[in-house]
Amino acid sequence: MHFFYFWTQYQSAPDKDSLILTDSLLHENTAINLLKLEVVKNNMGYIHKSIANYLLDDHIKKSLEIPTVPLKKVVPNALRLKNEITLNREKQIETGNQEQQSVLQDYKNNISGH
To answer: Region (Disordered) spans which residues (predicted)?
Structure first.
């Protein structure tokens, strides 16, 4: 995490494509079957913005035109707590891999129109 933060501090200003990519990521609308709760499905934009606000410093957020959100630390703290509660590291890795594969399949299905 610290290396990511260090790396972002020394990047040049974003170009037009970077701004378009940022906007696309913040307004992601691919249906993800992994998400079981409707409240999570309906708030993906807020979740993405919360994570971006947590990971990036103010200069980068301003350059990429990432809006601030209220209670921006709720989502990152919930994710951190979930990771700390998990006792079996191997099971957590296995579950994470399955979840990533599920999301990848959802994206592939979205692209192919299924």
So the answer is: 92-114
Ranges of each domain in the chain:
2-112
Q: Tell the residue number behind the tokens 């099971």, with chain if given.
A: 91
Residue 50: Cβ within 10 Å count: 23
pLDDT in tens, 12-63: 777 888 888 788 777 766 666 556 666 666 677 788 888 888 888 888 888 8
Residue 29 to residues 20, 46, 50, 79: CA-CA distances in angstroms? 15, 12, 16, 21
Could you give the angle at which helices 16-26 and 44-55 cross, rounded to 10 degrees? 130
